[in-house]
Specification:
TIM Barrel
Amino acid sequence: MAVKWEGVMPAVTTKFDSNDELDFITFEKNIKAQLDAGVNGIILGGTLGEASTLTASEKKSLVRKTLEVTNGRVPVIINIAEQSTKDAIQVAKDAEEWGAQGLMLLPPMRYKATDHETVVYLKEIAKSTSLPIMIYNNPVDYKIEITHDMFEELLGECSNIEAVKESTRDISNVVRLKNRFGDRLKVLCGVDTLALESMVTGADGWVAGLVAAYPRETVAIYKLVKAGDLEEALRIYRWFLPLLELDITPQLVQNIKLAEVATGLGTEYVRPPRLPLQGAERERVLAIIDNAMAQRPTLVDYTSL
């Protein structure tokens, strides 16, 4: 299945049970809810998916299960966030063998590579696979920025680099990327709290986090913005914003899994060293979720937009 880098692409959580094993029953329920809401792809093993804690066997199982559940309705994409170029290339090759239809690719992990090192790393991975690639550009959290000049070099040599998950937190960067690269580089917002603004300024899609708990509201905002109904999109977005802010903290996994519990689409189990929220912070997050649930908006029929 060809990947169209557009629309809402959930960076889904990885579901665990009380024994720290993959929970495919809850996972399947969540994926089906995403499909029913009208998402455009499923992204596995991202930051929200607790990528750094997953084994190769678990990644394979997640890809295979997701392909089974999606059954060709949307592309399945897996994130690559490895410690070495060699390991990253192996994951890219494995993902293609497992049946994944696209890759999301982070710069080198645990080492602040130079611009040259970063470009070489990304090129070598891209040239090792035929799968289409979305670069995850998040200098705030991962301390390496892929500049426009770096993208120029990458796009000139790697035709399968097709998109960027734009997470610089600079809203005007959407316009700069579009001005420089046009449709050669699809731009998807990677920061929940900037999603509506990004789409208004030309982003092609939204790699979303709170969609894991609220798939219909997320897709509705995207569809309404693209249809030009900003008033209705803003109505939902204003309600959504306190929840979306739960995605931009180090405890985003715990936060969003609590929200999934509230909507019946997940459990609170995280993989250590992460632990469920405790004390005052847990109460603060629960209050935000409870307030949102009490005021959850009625949605217009966005599916035909």
